[in-house]
Write a structure and sequence with these properties.
The complex is a heterodimer of chains A (243) and B (107). Chain A has 243 residues and is α/β, with parallel strands linked by helices. In chain A, 46% of the residues lie in helices and 16% in strands. Chain A has one domain: Alpha-Beta Barrel (TIM Barrel), CATH 3.20.20.140. Classes of the chains: A alpha/beta (243), B alpha+beta (107).
Chain lengths: 243, 107
């Protein structure tokens, strides 16, 4: 079966349709069949427009929201308001409290840690254990690997290596995304997987991080957001008087 | 004696600018030695086979063992002579003949 390659973090500006269209066409050309674009606010009209552009570019589209809460309480509020409106919910963990709350909340799909800031690497054993009991995956953006140089990149690689080792130890799925808005920084899925070898994610694991793992998240959430879903493992098959 | 297998890579240069083969190879050697050090670069066995400046298509050779290393280095290149660039591997093969056959299919 052909692999579905996904990039769940294409940071194109949804207000600038021309740029977005270029980025989506490029993603399709590079071999991605599923992409997610983060939205700043919920607008059904905008989502519909982006979906249309994706159809033109021949890529499957998933709506995504990046939450940047300052406190765990704020995160819970955001999730209550936005979970059912977006297919993917990612949390930018900028404090330890938020990171812990995001890891134990089943409504969170992706945990993203601010990479250039090494002192705020909250993905430790405790965080990974919480995430492994829930549905959260660790998201790693390729962008800083391409833009940083010298000691900054060395520190980034060492921090990513630590996070990946912890994630694998606790069986937390890893998702590799681009995190770019510039076409020149976009890479093919296999190239992103090759870059993952810099932080000890090799071969099949790296390829799964750009294909199976992100595709599973989208499939699971689409099922949940569908009208037939009742609870995990329970869905409506038929409605009527004879049921 | 163990036979060292070779791998040929067809690489496309995605840029608005054009570069000569020397500039391209300098950037590649620079990226390999930056990421893997001079020791790693010495194991890569990199050499330029063909450089098509008009179609922005390059064929390079490496060892089978160091293929992923070269792929990583190619992906990490974002600039050549301070001009933005992206290098994409179009096809990989064990012989030049098969590489061209694969290229015909992909392009």
């Amino acid at each position: 079966m052909k692999r579905v390659y996904a990039d769940l973090h294409l940071c194109a500006d949804c207000d600038r349709m021309e740029q977005l269209s270029r980025v989506l066409t490029k993603a399709s050309k590079l071999g991605y069949t599923l992409v997610a674009v983060p939205f700043r606010r919920f607008s059904e009209e905008q989502i519909r427009q982006v979906r249309k552009t994706c159809e033109k570019a021949d890529v499957d589209f998933a709506s995504r929201v990046d939450l940047r809460p300052r406190t765990p309480e704020e995160l819970i509020g955001f999730l209550r308001k936005l979970r059912r409106r977006f297919e993917i919910v990612s949390v930018m963990c900028e404090s330890k409290g938020v990171a812990r709350q995001a890891a134990k909340d089943r409504r969170v799909d992706l945990l993203n840690f601010p990479q250039p800031d090494f002192r705020r690497g909250f993905f430790d054993g405790a965080e990974a254990e919480l995430a492994s009991n829930c549905l959260a995956s660790l998201e790693i953006d390729v962008k800083p690997l391409l833009t940083l140089e010298g000691p900054a990149r060395i520190r980034l690689l060492s921090s990513l290596r630590r996070e990946v080792t912890t994630a694998r130890e606790f069986h937390v799925p890893i998702v590799i995304s681009s995190g770019v808005s510039d076409e020149m920084l976009m890479r093919k899925p296999r190239e992103s997987a090759a870059l993952a070898s810099l932080f000890d994610l090799y071969g099949a694991c790296a390829l799964e991080a750009v294909s199976k793992n992100p595709a599973t998240i989208v499939k699971r959430n689409r099922e949940k957001l569908g009208p037939k879903f009742v609870a995990p493992g329970i869905r409506i098959i038929r409605r009527g008087k004879d049921c | 004696m163990k036979v060292m297998k070779r791998r040929y890579l067809a690489v496309s240069i995605d840029s608005y600018e054009t570069f000569n083969s020397h500039e391209f190879m300098n950037a590649l050697w620079g990226a390999v030695s930056k990421l893997f050090g001079e020791y790693g670069a010495s194991q890569a066995g990199l050499s330029l086979i063909d450089y098509d400046e008009t179609n922005k298509l390059v064929v390079i050779r490496t060892w089978h063992k160091t293929l992923e290393m070269v792929r990583t280095a190619l992906a990490s290149i974002t600039q050549i002579l301070n001009k933005p660039v992206a290098l994409h591997v179009l096809a990989v093969s064990g012989t030049i003949k098969a590489l061209h056959r694969k290229l015909e299919k992909t392009i």
